[in-house]
Every structure is written in structure tokens, then in C-alpha cells.
């Protein structure tokens, strides 16, 4: 059908730089080879119909004049994108949309950014709205923050839009617009892979904890007289009286240093050094930023015991996924050890799979082949 526009948008893994994207720090995510496909067909009657292959999802319909609160659940990300497009001055006459996902939902792999960026890209393509990737990212962020209620930064959107095969995306969030730089990731050539451990634990950034961490960081920056908390000096924790704000600031400072260390390790192909940095990041997120959970901690511990060079939670936290840098021949042992630990706790069996750095959002043909976007 020539009247159907199709976009494939990958999920993302954040290698290092967690909770820095709203603190003016550097982040290093990568787009991964699991994606969301959005198929769109034009309508001219002001109606939007959405179908999804998510388990238990049924057709959802709403008007292009949809407002926050009108649609909830999985379809709120679609409705939010339509709302954000109109709110930013783009005309949308109506559409039929089909979403197909190869990303585990709630796993912290940015299925939400893949969905919102995919819908914005497909609608922009369908109606010749002239959206560049920066505008798509801003529309997608506006959808999540203004409609869904998750005050996210721009890291996820930029990662899924600007990713390239075998490369990470270094994002400088201290400048507006954020800058992106491609970083070659050479671990696969050196006999290593990046494994994801999807814990199955609940992951929802709109539940309030993410917003609370962001507010704490903003308070700390204000007390220090800074625009961005990542600009703080080494004496920042001494200058703050509140113990919680000290801990949050300590994470932002040390995580910023870890990103720079990780870049050096990647450039030098010093993989044990990178592994140590990943593990240190998890400890900081667990202890200073308090966004881990027992399922993530056990996943990281089991991965290290199975021979991973390093492991950490990835994403906003409170569930979701962990990542591990590991030799491919040790992935099965890692899987078995994590599954055994989860069984002891009577937790849902986790999903363990290898991911590869992949290309970002792109227009695809009916057979899924990439078209020049």
C-alpha cells in the first residue's frame, strides 16, 4: 500500500551517564537492534485510530484535538505526540496508526521514546511537516513531559534518532540545542558483547520518583548558584547542608567523571577499565541516587559473578534493565546464574539477550528495508 508510511525506531541502552541529561552533564547512550515500527495512513476527518500488538491492547480512538488526561495507558504516548505536534504549531488532519514493538515494555530500553519519535516521524512524513530530527526529539519530549507526565530529558529521543551501527551517541546536555557526537564502540571486534538483563520489575517514570530526583537536583543546583548541577566543583557536597542533596550531588559529580573515563577507556579499547566504571556507576545509582531496586542489584551481582567485566542498571531505575559487558561464551552462564538467583527470590524470570549498536530512526519500505529518510 503506497499510502502507508512506515518508520522503524530503535530502543536505546544508556552505556554511562545516568540521570545526567537533565543536569547538564555528558551522556553516552547507544541505539540498539530492537525497535518499534510505526505504520501511518492519512485521514482528513480529525480522527486518530491506533492499534498495537502489545498484549491486551485494543484499538484506541481520539480526536486530533486530544488534551492531557483524555487518553491513558499505552496509547497516551501516541495521543501525547499528536497533542505535542499541534501544540508546537504543526497541523495534523487525522491518521490511522499501527504500532508493532520488538522492545520489552517497561524494561527501561526507551520504548516510550521509540514510540513518540516514531509517531512524530511518521506523521511528519505523511503530511510533509518538514520536521528535522531536532524537532522530532522536542515533540517527543513534549509529549512525555506535557501529556504523559514524565519530566524526561532529551537523551532517549536523541539516542534513538541519531544512533548509528557500531557507535554510541555522546550527547552534551549543557548546551541548547544539545550536541551529538558519534563514538565508535569497538568491544565486539575485541571479543566482547553487551548483554541486557530485563528484570521484569515495574518501571514507570511517571510514578513520581523520577520527578522527585529531578526536583532534588534542581534544588541542589539552586543552592549552589549553578545553572546545571553537573557544573558543581569538588567542594559542592561540603557546601550543602541537606544529606539527601549531598548524595544526589555526589552522584552527578562522580557520574560526570565516569562518562569522561568511559570515553577514554573506549578510545583506548581498555575494556576491563570500562567494566570497572560501569560497576562503579551502579554503586553510585544504588547508594547516592537511590534509584536501584533488589532485582537490579541481584542482576548486577550475578552478572559479575558469572564473569562480566562490569555491569550496572541502565535507564531511569526503579526496575527495568541492567547491562553487562561480557565475553559471548559467558552469556549463557550469566543467564543461568541470574535466573537461578531470581528463582530463589521467587521473582519473575528475567530476559537476558545481547544487543548491538544500531542505526537510529529511519523510514522503511513495506518489507522493512530501509529507505532514505
TrEMBL record:
Designated name of the protein: Galactokinase
Q: Which residues form the GHMP kinase N-terminal domain?
A: 77-163
- What is a single molecular function from GO for this protein? galactokinase activity
Query: Which ranges carry the GHMP kinase C-terminal domain?
Result: 263-343
Top-level EC class as recorded in UniProt: transferase
- Keyword Heme assigned: no
**What keyword terms does UniProt attach to this protein?**
ATP-binding, Carbohydrate metabolism, Galactose metabolism, Kinase, Magnesium, Metal-binding, Nucleotide-binding, Transferase
Amino acid at each position: 500500500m503506497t499510502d502507508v508510511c512506515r518508520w522503524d525506531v530503535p530502543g536505546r541502552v544508556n552505556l554511562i551517564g545516568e540521570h545526567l541529561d537533565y543536569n547538564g552533564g555528558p551522556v553516552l547512550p547507544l541505539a540498539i537492534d530492537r525497535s518499534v515500527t510505526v505504520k501511518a495512513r492519512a485521514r482528513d476527518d480529525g480522527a486518530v485510530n491506533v492499534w498495537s500488538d502489545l498484549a491486551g491492547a485494543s484499538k484506541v480512538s481520539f480526536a486530533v484535538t486530544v488534551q492531557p488526561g483524555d487518553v491513558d495507558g499505552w496509547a497516551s504516548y501516541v495521543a501525547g505526540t499528536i497533542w505535542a505536534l499541534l501544540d508546537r504549531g504543526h497541523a495534523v488532519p487525522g491518521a490511522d496508526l499501527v504500532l508493532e514493538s520488538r522492545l520489552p515494555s517497561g524494561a527501561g530500553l526507551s520504548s516510550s521514546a521509540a514510540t513518540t519519535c516514531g509517531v512524530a516521524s511518521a506523521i511528519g512524513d505523511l503530511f510533509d511537516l518538514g520536521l528535522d530530527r531536532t524537532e522530532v526529539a522536542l515533540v517527543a519530549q513534549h509529549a512525555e513531559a506535557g501529556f504523559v507526565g514524565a519530566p524526561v530529558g532529551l537523551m532517549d529521543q536523541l539516542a534513538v534518532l541519531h544512533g548509528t551501527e557500531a557507535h554510541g551517541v555522546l550527547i552534551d546536555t549543557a548546551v541548547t540545542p544539545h550536541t551529538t557526537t558519534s563514538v565508535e564502540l569497538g568491544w565486539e571486534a575485541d571479543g566482547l558483547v553487551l548483554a541486557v538483563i530485563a528484570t521484569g520489575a515495574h518501571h514507570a517514570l511517571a510514578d513520581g520518583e523520577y520527578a522527585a530526583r529531578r526536583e532534588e537536583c534542581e534544588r541542589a543546583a539552586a543552592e549552589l548558584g549553578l545553572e546545571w548541577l553537573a557544573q558543581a566543583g569538588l567542594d559542592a557536597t561540603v557546601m550543602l547542608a541537606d544529606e539527601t542533596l549531598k548524595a544526589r550531588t555526589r552522584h552527578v559529580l562522580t557520574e560526570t567523571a565516569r562518562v569522561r573515563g568511559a570515553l577514554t577507556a573506549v578510545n583506548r579499547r581498555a575494556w576491563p577499565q570500562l567494566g570497572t566504571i560501569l560497576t562503579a556507576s551502579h554503586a553510585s545509582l544504588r547508594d547516592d541516587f537511590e534509584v536501584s531496586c533488589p532485582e537490579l542489584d541481584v542482576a548486577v551481582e550475578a552478572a559479575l559473578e558469572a564473569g562480566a567485566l562490569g555491569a550496572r542498571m541502565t535507564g531511569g531505575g526503579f526496575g527495568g534493565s541492567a547491562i553487562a559487558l561480557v565475553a559471548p561464551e559467558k552469556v549463557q552462564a550469566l543467564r543461568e546464574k541470574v535466573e537461578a538467583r531470581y528463582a530463589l527470590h521467587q521473582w519473575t524470570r528475567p530476559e537476558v539477550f545481547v544487543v548491538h549498536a544500531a542505526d537510529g530512526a529511519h523510514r522503511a519500505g513495506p518489507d522493512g528495508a530501509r529507505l532514505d529518510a
